[in-house]
Each structure stands twice: as structure tokens, then as C-alpha cells.
Amino acid sequence: MRLALLVLLLTVSGWGQxxxxxxxxxxxxxxxxxxxxxxxxxxxxxxxxxxRMQCGGTRQYDFIVHGLWPQYERSWPQFCETNETLxxxxxxxxxxxxxxxGLIRHExxxxxxxxxxxxxxxxxxxxxxxxxxKIPAALQxxxxxxxxxxxxxKNEFLAANPGMPGDAVSVGxxxxxxxxxRVCLTKDxxxxxxxxxxxxQACRMSEIIVQPLR
Length: 214
What we know:
Layout: H1 2-13, E1 31-38, H2 39-43, H3 46-49, H4 52-55, E2 63-71, H5 88-94, H6 101-115, H7 119-132, E3 146-148, H8 150-160, E4 169-174, E5 177-185, H9 196-200, E6 208-210
């Protein structure tokens, strides 16, 4: 009885809220979070071994676009209501920066809709954000693994992108491995300071391993 009551309280309070619960209104948000996934880490996992498009083809990826996420200063919108659709031609032309049709569909439904506008506009915006960001030389198709502090990777991004605020970049890890770099952007895709929510999610390891290209 007590367990059932606890579950009910968690659900009512929002602590137990479903991850796919709609939240927010399309077009109403404060900034973007550009999330870049480190493909060599994904491709080193069992899931990556089964991912023939991203990990088994002739092209080898370093960073790919995980998503361009509308954010509030606290929390974020998701699964906003929309009548907009995601057409196959949009998916096809996005595969070079997001090599997974499933990921593209998911990102549109969870995050892209909340940006407002069409799917074509959203993925074009993600492409422009990615294209405007200079990837540090040490992270361009590395052939050997290296072990570094997350702060080193952050500083490499800052050095490669002069003028970027020092708190605009957040490095993420999965255990002891680099798996993501996030960059906070204004609505017109200029680098800006990340919110406290984003900063709290940064990697806390003293050193992490950067997997080489696969």
C-alpha cells in the first residue's frame, strides 16, 4: 500500500514524470544547445557494431550532430504540439551530419518541433550551427586514443573558436570515455553562456579517454 502511494506521489509531483511527456509551446524557448556525439565511442559499443550506417560504411565519422535542442534557462521543452511533418527528402539530405534515420525522426519529434517552423528549417539550422563550429585539430579524425582531462577538450574548442565565451562549451562522458560535446547558442546561433542546468550535466571525471576513429 505504501509503495503504491509513493508511486502516485512521485507521478503527481513530477519526479516520476514520463520522459516522453509533452512540455512547452513551439517557438517559445530561450536558447539552443548543440549536442555533438563522438561517433568513435558509439562505434566501439555493441550497439555501434550493429549500426551499419554510422559505423560500418566507407565513411568514418568523428563528431556527428546528436541534436539542436531548444532550452529554457531552467529545463527544456519537448514533444510540442505540431501539424508539421518530416518528409523523406529532409531525412535523406540530413544523413551526412546525422547518419541515422531513426535519430533524425526522434530529434524532430522531441526537440525540432519545439523550435517552431518546418522540419526543413530546423535541420538546416542544425547544419548551419554545426558548420559554423570549428572542430579542434586534435579531434579531427584521430588515429590513436588519448587520455586527457575534460577541461583540455573544452579549451581546445575555445582555442579553435576565438571569441566563444569560456562557459559556452560543456564536455560529456560515458564512464571514462568522451561521448559528447555541447555548445550553447543564442536563437541566431551565436555562442553564449550555458545555463546552470547544462553545466551540471558536464563530465566530472578527472581524465577521460578519447577513442580513435573507427
